[in-house]
Design a protein that fits this description.
The chain is of the alpha/beta class. The protein contains five helices and five strands; from the N terminus they run E-H-E-H-E-H-H-H-E-E. Helices cover about 35% and strands about 25% of the residues. A hairpin with a 5-residue loop joins strand 4 and strand 5. It is globular. The termini are close together.
């Protein structure tokens, strides 16, 4: 299972999410997209998921806090207890033995991040 994880600002544009996904490696072979629960219903993310033909997995914030990530954002660490929402969401949604195949990348306008993980599923 290949999952793209996303972190983004509240009013993120579809183009920004798409840009981050393409920078992380693109939608080819994705099984799902993932983000923290309170952002899973964001319209631009739902549009991107529809474009790619995959579901969105909503990951509880407390689950993200227990995941170590290779990249670190001080702001994200203070708020969520993990270094990267994108990396942690991708890893959580891809399953217990998941590994990152693309670490966090940032969209050109700096409003979205994406990372991709591969695993056995949850």
């Amino acid at each position: 299972m290949k999952v793209a994880g996303f972190g983004f600002k509240k009013d993120v544009a579809l183009a920004s999410l798409r840009d981050a996904l393409l920078a992380a490696g693109g939608p080819e072979g994705l099984s799902a997209m993932a983000t923290v629960c309170d952002k899973a219903d964001t319209e631009s993310l739902k549009q991107l998921a529809r474009e790619c033909g995959v579901p969105i997995k909503a990951v509880p914030a407390d689950m993200l806090a227990s995941i170590d990530t290779p990249t670190q954002s001080k702001l994200v660490a203070e708020k969520f207890g993990t270094g990267s929402i994108a990396e942690a969401a991708a890893l959580a949604a891809a399953g217990p033995r998941a590994r990152l195949i693309a670490t966090r990348v940032v969209s050109k306008d700096r409003t979205a991040t994406a990372a991709i993980a591969e695993g056995d599923g949850a």
